[in-house]
Design a protein that fits this description.
292 residues; mainly beta; SH3 type barrels; 7-stranded antiparallel β-sheet; 4-stranded antiparallel β-sheet; globular
Length: 292
């Protein structure tokens, strides 16, 4: 991480990632044939109604076409560049296959220019290689995991994230998610070996409101500051209590404070082996409590 001298109020608390340490100096611009234009929605749907609040503005972005299906199998590829992608938190890598085709993939940690990767059922469980979960040993960290075989990667795509293979049975592999949830996925689903790059992403402090506006984020208004018609926490004279036991979103659904938000009729409930740990008991705080 890079922290600046506090030459102004915004510089005082802001921090940035030193991209020169992780990205190849040869990639000044993305490969044009693997990009397309992207229109900013401002959080609005096709009818023009706001469906995601507090979004709008921001710098214009070029969308990079990322290969999440990895349907080019048994063909070795060489990493040509490691690049920044404004549309996702992790870095991306441009790989050139032996037949000359180039594609962008989500880059794992420790993947360097010149490294070779392959998508194969008989591949070694080496960083960057992709193979079925049935061929991946217990204890290996993976990312870009499929839920339905052949449908493309859905799980483990954010910066610094990894999913641990904790068990195998006849049809399923048990995976421990970054959320601490343990769930089953078909053994025939594919996964990439490694941990998603740019692990310092979670440590970045935006520092000032102007930088957030460049990112397309708009100011957030507290629910308690709104009128009763606009939010379940709104209304009342002065600073009033919310009037009900649980925190709610604008749409009235429970949120935050360790409350369960998963639908009781979710289709994949039968595949959940162990539910995620909620609130204060999640992650490092739980470990420190257990040591005491």
């Amino acid at each position: 991480m890079k922290k600046y001298k506090p030459t102004s109020a915004g510089r005082r608390d802001g921090s940035v990632i030193e991209y020169k340490k992780f990205l190849s100096s040869t990639a000044s611009k993305p490969l044009k044939s693997l990009t397309k234009g992207k229109r900013s929605t401002g959080g609005r749907n096709s009818s023009g109604r706001i469906t995601t609040h507090y979004r709008g503005g921001g710098n214009k972005r070029t969308y990079r076409l990322i290969d999440f299906k990895y349907d080019k199998k048994e063909v070795p590829a060489r990493v040509e560049t490691v690049e920044y992608d404004p549309n996702r938190s992790g870095f991306i890598a441009l790989v050139c296959y032996a037949d000359g085709e180039r594609r962008y993939i989500l880059a794992p940690q420790k993947l360097k220019v010149g490294d070779k990767i392959i998508v194969s059922e008989t591949a070694k469980p080496k960083v960057g290689n992709r193979l079925p979960l049935a061929s991946i040993p217990v204890g290996t960290f993976v990312y870009n995991v499929e839920i339905n075989p052949g449908a493309g990667a859905k799980l483990g795509r954010s910066a610094g994230n990894a999913i641990e293979v904790v068990a195998h049975d006849s049809k399923h592999a048990s995976l421990k998610m970054p959320s601490t949830e343990i769930r089953k996925v078909l053994n025939s689903a594919w996964a990439s070996v490694g941990v998603v790059s740019n692990e310092e992403h979670k440590l970045v402090s935006i520092g000032k409101a102007g930088r957030a506006r460049h990112m397309g984020l708009r100011p957030k208004t507290r629910g308690a500051a709104k009128n009763a018609v606009d939010h379940p926490h709104g209304g009342g004279e002065g600073r009033s209590p919310r009037g009900h036991r649980r925190q709610r979103t604008k749409q009235g659904r429970p949120t935050g404070k360790g409350q369960k938000t998963r639908s009781p009729k979710k289709y994949s409930n039968k595949l959940i082996v162990q539910r995620r740990k909620l609130g204060k008991v999640m992650g490092g705080q739980r470990q420190s409590m257990s040591k005491k």
